[in-house]
Design goal:
It contains 12 helices and 10 strands. With 362 residues, the protein is of the alpha/beta class. Strands 1, 2, 3, 4, 5, 6, 7, 8, 9 and 10 form a 10-stranded mixed β-sheet that branches. The protein is globular, with a radius of gyration of 19 Å. About 13% of the residues have low confidence.
C-alpha cells in the first residue's frame, strides 16, 4: 500500500533558476551543487555529475551519467531549464550520447555548453579514466544513477556480476574518486557545499538479501557466485547496499564539506526493464503500465535532491521530494553493523580490482 501511495503522489514542478547569471565564468566544471533553495544570492560555477544507466554531465557545470535516455535525458532537460554553464553527458555508447546531445541542443536559447564523454560503469578502468579526464576540476553536484536490471547472470570485463558492478561498485568507486573535485567546489563557495547524490529505489524495501548472513569478508563473494544468484532479488539487494554505502560515506564526510544523500525517483516508465523476460517481466511491465511514474516526474525528484535540498539531507534518503525512512533493515542495529561490513568489503574489492588507493578513502 505504501508503494501505491508513493507512486500516486503528485510531483510538483521546480521553478527554473538562472544559473548562468550566477556563475563566475569557469567553464570546465562538471556538476557542482548549488543549494539554490537557501543560497539564492551566491555566485558559483556549477558542476554536476549525474549517474544514470547511461551517463551525463551538465554545467554550470553539471555531470550526469545515464543521460542518453529515460531519467538521464529528462534530468538533463530539467537542469537545462535553469541555464547551467556546462553539461557533460557521460555515456557508455558514444553514438547514443551524441544523439542525446543533439536533442538537448535543439532547445531554444540554450546558453549551456554540452559535451559527451565516455564512461562505462562495467569497467573500473573506464571509471578511473573518466575521473582522470576531469583534471581535478571542481564538481558541485554528482548524481550517481546506475540502473541495470538484467534478466540473467552476466559478467563484466572485470569478472564481476554486472548488476553488482554497475549498480553498486562502480558508483562507489566514482564517488570516492570525485571527493577531491567536490571538496574543491565547496572551498570555492563554503556556504553551499557540493553534493554527491545516489539515485536509489523504493524497491530496496523488498530486498531479501540472504547474502548478508555470510561471515565478514564474504558477502560480496556470495553476491558474485553464479550458483547463489537470484535475479528476482538482485536489483533490490543492490539498491539496499547502495543505501548502506551512502550512509557510511555520509558518516565519513562532514555536511559542511560535502553533502551526501540518496534519492528515490519512483518506479518510472523508462527502459530499465528492457532486458527482463518471463513471468517476472510481465508482472513488472503491468505494474509499470498501471502505476509507473513518468520519467519527467522522476527527474524532478532527482533535481530537487541536488538543487533544492541542502545540509539537512546529509546521509538521508529522499522520496517524493521529502526525507523518508529507509527500509527497517537499513535502519536496524543489524543494518548499522552491516553498513560497516559492506563498506570494508567494497573498499577491499576496489583496492584489488578497481585501482583504489588508500589516500582516496575518507
Amino acid at each position: 500500500m505504501e508503494f501505491i501511495k508513493a507512486q500516486r503522489t503528485k510531483i510538483p514542478h521546480i521553478s527554473p533558476l538562472n544559473l548562468a547569471s550566477r556563475t563566475s565564468g569557469i567553464g570546465d566544471v562538471f556538476l557542482t551543487k548549488p543549494t539554490f533553495g537557501h543560497v539564492m544570492g551566491a555566485a558559483r560555477d556549477l558542476s554536476l555529475v549525474l549517474k544514470f544507466t547511461a551517463e551525463m554531465l551538465t554545467s554550470s557545470p553539471f555531470h550526469s551519467t545515464g543521460s542518453n535516455a529515460g531519467l538521464g535525458l529528462e534530468a538533463a532537460r530539467e537542469f537545462l531549464a535553469s541555464k547551467p554553464k556546462r553539461l557533460i553527458l557521460a555515456v557508455r555508447n558514444m553514438e547514443k550520447g551524441n544523439a542525446a546531445r543533439q536533442q538537448l541542443i535543439s532547445l531554444k536559447e540554450l546558453p549551456t555548453d554540452i559535451e559527451v564523454r565516455k564512461l562505462d560503469q562495467g569497467s573500473f578502468e573506464s571509471v578511473r579514466d573518466f575521473v582522470k579526464g576531469l583534471n581535478g576540476e571542481r564538481i558541485d553536484i554528482a548524481i550517481f544513477n546506475a540502473g541495470v536490471w538484467n534478466a540473467k547472470w552476466k559478467n563484466t570485463t572485470d569478472g564481476l556480476e554486472s548488476d553488482l558492478q554497475v549498480n553498486v561498485l562502480a558508483p562507489a568507486l566514482l564517488s570516492l574518486l570525485l571527493i577531491p573535485n567536490a571538496r574543491r567546489a565547496t572551498t570555492a563557495v563554503p556556504e553551499s557545499p557540493a553534493h554527491l547524490t545516489f539515485v536509489s529505489s523504493g524497491l530496496h524495501e523488498m530486498a531479501k538479501f540472504p547474502e548478508r548472513h555470510q561471515s565478514p569478508g564474504h558477502i560480496l563473494t556470495a553476491l558474485n557466485d553464479p550458483s547463489e544468484y537470484n535475479q528476482q532479488d538482485r536489483y533490490a539487494t543492490g539498491k539496499t547496499i547502495g543505501l548502506l554505502w551512502t550512509r557510511e560515506l555520509a558518516a565519513r564526510l562532514s555536511s559542511n564539506e560535502v553533502v551526501v544523500n540518496a534519492v528515490n525517483p519512483g518506479f518510472c516508465k523508462t527502459g530499465i526493464i528492457q532486458n527482463m523476460s518471463g513471468m517476472m517481466a510481465g508482472m513488472v511491465k503491468l505494474t509499470e503500465l498501471l502505476l509507473g511514474r513518468s520519467a519527467a516526474d522522476g527527474a524532478r525528484c532527482i533535481v530537487d535532491a541536488t538543487l533544492m535540498k541542502g545540509v539537512e539531507s546529509h546521509g538521508k534518503y529522499l522520496s517524493e521530494m521529502q526525507v523518508k525512512p529507509e527500509s527497517p533493515l537499513v535502519r536496524s542495529d543489524e543494518g548499522r553493523e552491516l553498513q560497516s561490513k559492506i563498506w570494508d568489503e567494497i573498499v577491499t574489492l576496489l583496492k584489488e580490482k578497481g585501482g583504489l588507493v588508500q589516500s582516496a578513502i575518507p
